[in-house]
Design a protein that fits this description.
With 190 residues, this protein is mainly alpha-helical. It folds into 2 domains: 2-38, no CATH class; 43-189, GntR ligand-binding domain-like (Four Helix Bundle (Hemerythrin (Met), subunit A), Up-down Bundle). The protein has 8 helices and 2 strands; from the N terminus they run ααββαααααα. The protein has helices at residues 2-8, 12-24, 43-67, 70-91, 98-113, 119-139, 145-160, 163-189, and strands spanning 28-31, 35-38. A two-stranded antiparallel sheet has the order 1-2. α4 (70-91) runs antiparallel to α5 (98-113) and α4 packs antiparallel against α7. The protein starts with a helix and ends with a helix. 26% of the residues are buried.
Length: 190
Amino acid sequence: MEELRTRYGVSVPTLREALSRLASEGLAVAEDQRGFAVAPISEANLRELAALRMLIELHALERSFQVGDVEWSSRVVAAHHKLSRIEQRMIAGDPCDRIEWKRYDSGFHHALIMGCGSAELLAVHGSVFDRYLRYQMVYLTFRGQIAADEHQALLEAALERDVARGKEVLVRHIEGGVEHALRAHAAQRA
């Protein structure tokens, strides 16, 4: 705690509160009388989070496609534009800021479902997505043109309000991302 207090210039009670919040979100683990540690990661947990993300995101996607208004579709287009620009730079070999890429990726997925009309559903999705994103940040992988094409297909499905196509692409996108991340992690360890 002392090292963190010094590094970030905050009080120990503030650190404890922040770490307790991270623990309640599954991102940290409170260790008896020893403080906190980063929560461990595992293939099983990644797969579980991906399945939960799919369950929530598919439902919210369907609702957004059904009830999203012109403001919603404008946000989806804008979010896709930002993501598409950075993806094209990365595909071209530009060593872009991968943190920025993940921010735009997250923003696009959030825009796709924000028309669902449920603040609670969005909050639950945000929590699950943050925990899922942790794996993406650890393995930090980009699937290149495949991911860009899937994002384009999701945009088209949203604008056409094609629920079946949107769901099919989203499942393929999430499952493909998980498998790619696991292969990348295995290659890093080898």
